[in-house]
């Protein structure tokens, strides 16, 4: 009587059993990754590889500065033009009155793109984006791309891009008080 050898069948069974045990071990080791938001490039690279790297202002720096609005924070960055924030004339009329508009690299406020969580901030009829309406209390981080990014974002981003990342998992209550005083040519502000 001959005993048939089934070497091929045995090898396939062993391979399937080994593969199933490896897949079970890998499924148990799955990790959760945090969400990452990228500003300014569709090309994977290190931040310092560009001539003008992305300036990132985190929540701790914003709180330490004591500024109330995003306009106040951005007025003090090194990439801002002169004036850093274009303020409209208080006695003029029109849709751009009373706003704060970012002017990066002295190319004009209409050449700087402002994003909130990666989406364009709504603009006025003249195409300007008012950042004075964004309180610093809701901001997690501000990314400033100090170089032209029109190839990625369009002609609105010739001077640069500002991406305002808001806080996502805020629980509780926050309060801030602001007092101003004016008299005889001097002004005093306390926050």
Low-confidence stretches: 43-48, 88-92
SS class = alpha+beta
Strand content: 25-35%
Shape: elongated
Class of the domain at 49-169, according to the CATH hierarchy? Mainly Beta
Task: Give a written overview of the molecule.
The chain has 191 residues and is an alpha+beta fold. It has a domain at 49-169: TonB-dependent receptor, plug domain (Ferric Hydroxamate Uptake Protein, Chain A, domain 1). It has four helices and nine strands, in the order αβααβββββαβββ. It has helices spanning 7-28, 59-65, 70-74, 150-153; strands at 54-58, 80-87, 100-104, 112-116, 119-120, 139-145, 160-166, 179-183, 186-190. Strands 1-6-7-4-5 form a five-stranded mixed sheet. A two-stranded antiparallel ribbon has the order 2-3. Strand 8 and strand 9 (186-190) form a beta hairpin. The radius of gyration is 27 Å and the shape is elongated. It starts with 6 loop residues before the first helix and ends with a strand. The relative contact order is 0.16. Pfam families: Plug. Belongs to the TonB-dependent receptor family.
Task: Tell me the layout of helices and strands.
Elements: H1 7-28, E1 54-58, H2 59-65, H3 70-74, E2 80-87, E3 100-104, E4 112-116, E5 119-120, E6 139-145, H4 150-153, E7 160-166, E8 179-183, E9 186-190
Parallel strand pairs: 4-7
Antiparallel strand pairs: 1-6, 2-3, 4-5, 6-7, 8-9
Summary, kept brief:
With 191 residues, the chain is α+β, with helices and mostly antiparallel strands. The protein contains 4 helices and 9 strands. It has helices at residues 7-28, 59-65, 70-74, 150-153, and strands at residues 54-58, 80-87, 100-104, 112-116, 119-120, 139-145, 160-166, 179-183, 186-190.
